[in-house]
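Worked example 3. Consider a protein that binds adenosine monophosphate.
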Amino acid sequence: MQFKDLNLHPSILKAVEEEGYTTPTPIQEQAVPLVLMGRDVLGCAQTGTGKTAAFAMPILHQLEQRNLSGPRKISALILTPTRELAIQIDDSFKTYGKYLKVRTLVIFGGVGQQPQVDALRRGTDVLIATPGRLLDLVNQRLLDLGHISLFVLDEADRMLDMGFIHDVRKVLQLLPNKRQNLFFSATMAPDIQHLADAILIRPVKVEVTPVSSTAEMIDQCVYFVDKANKNALFLSIVEGINAPSMLVFTRTKYGADRLARFLVKNGMKAEAIHGDKSQNNRQRSLKAFKDKTIRFLVATDIAARGIDIEEMEMVINYEIPNIPETYVHRIGRTGRAGRSGKAISLCDFEEKAYLKDIEKIIHQKVPVIDNHPYPMEIFEVIKKEKTPRPTSDRNKSIAPKQREGTALPSAKKGKSSWFRKRKA
Ligand code: AMP
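Given these inputs, the predicted complex is written out as C-alpha cells:
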C-alpha cells in the first residue's frame, strides 16, 4: 500500500513525502481509513509503530475539510500522559499539517501557564494536552471543551500506570457526548479494556505487532556481571563501540544520576534525565543528545517514555527492568519503523530473575556474552554443616577457596557459613 491509497489530503501527502516516509506502517494502513470513516478505534499499538501519524493524519484531514475561517474553537483533543509525548505529538501534527490551515497547540504542566493561556486565546483547532494542566485551565475557565468532536486518548496504559485515571474521567465528563473517539494503548489489561469500554462506541479494534515480536528484530545480548563491576564493564563495552549516541536505561533516578556522573568523571559526555529534573533541564539534555553534543543519555523508564529519538542504533540496559514489558519498550527504541538495532543488557545476580521473566515474554533466550573482563563472581551460600563446630574452629579451618587471580569480594572473615564460587 502507498500513502496515496489512504485518500488523505494532498497537502498531507506532500508533507509526509518530505519526511521521507515511503509506505504507511501497518497501524497507519489499518487505522487511517477507519478514522476517516468516522469510526471509533481501539488501537493496540506501542510507541515506535507510527501510531501518532495514524491518528494525526486523518484528524488533520477531517479538520481541513471544515470551514476554518474566523475564531477557532477546539475541535480535537489529544490527551497524553507526559509532557515529552505531548510535545512530540504536537511536532507530528505540525509536520504533517504544515501545508494546511489547521492550527495545533500543546499544553502541559511544569512550566508557566501564561504563554499557553495567550496561545489558547489566539485559538486552535487541535489541542494536545496532559491531563493535569488541561483540568487546571478548565477550572480557571480559560479553556472550553464544549466543541470537541474528536477525542484521542493516547498511551492509555501509561495514563493508568501514572495514576491519571481520575483526571481522565473528569475530562471525559467535560466533553460533548457526540464525538469520535480514538483510544491507543500498548497493552490491553482488564482495567484498560474497562476504560476503553466506557469511552468507545462500537469501536473497531486495530492491533499491530504484539510486544514479543518487536523484540525479534533487535540484536540483543546480555553480560552477566557483579553489581560492583557494572561501571567498569560499561566503560569497557562502550569504549569498544563507535556508535555516536547511546540511550542508557536505569531503574531509578538515583541510578541514572550516579551513572551519568561516573561517565562524566571518565571523560564521557553524558547527562541523566528523570522525573526530578525540571522540564527545561530535560529538554536541554534531550536536545544535546539529538544534536550529538552528548553521547550518552541516561534515563529512567518514566522519563524516557515518549521521547522520540530517531535512528537510535543502540540502547543499553545498565539495569534490567523489573517489569518485562518495559524491556521490550526500551529495546523497541532501536527498531523503530522497520529499522533494526542493538540492545545490550548488564545483568547482576539479583536481576537474573527479571531476565528470566523477560525471556518468557519475548519467547527467546537473550544471547550471553561470556568473554568479557568482568565475569560474575557470585558466591553461593552452602548449607551449614549439620553439626556446627565452635565459631573459633570454623574460622580457622574453613576458608573460602580462591580461584587463581581473582578476589573474593563477598567472602568476609568470620562468617558462619562459607562460600563457593558459582559461574553465572
Ligand atoms: P510513533 O509510533 O508515532 O512514536 O512513531 C515512531 C517513529 O516512526 C516516528 O519517529 C515517526 O516519525 C516515524 N514514522 C511514522 N510513520 C512512518 C512511516 N510511514 N514511515 C517511516 N517512519 C514513520
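Take a moment to read the result before moving on. The domain at 3-209 is CATH 3.40.50.300 (Rossmann fold). Residues 21, 24-25, 28, 47-53, 308, 310, 336-337 surround adenosine monophosphate (CB under 6 Å).
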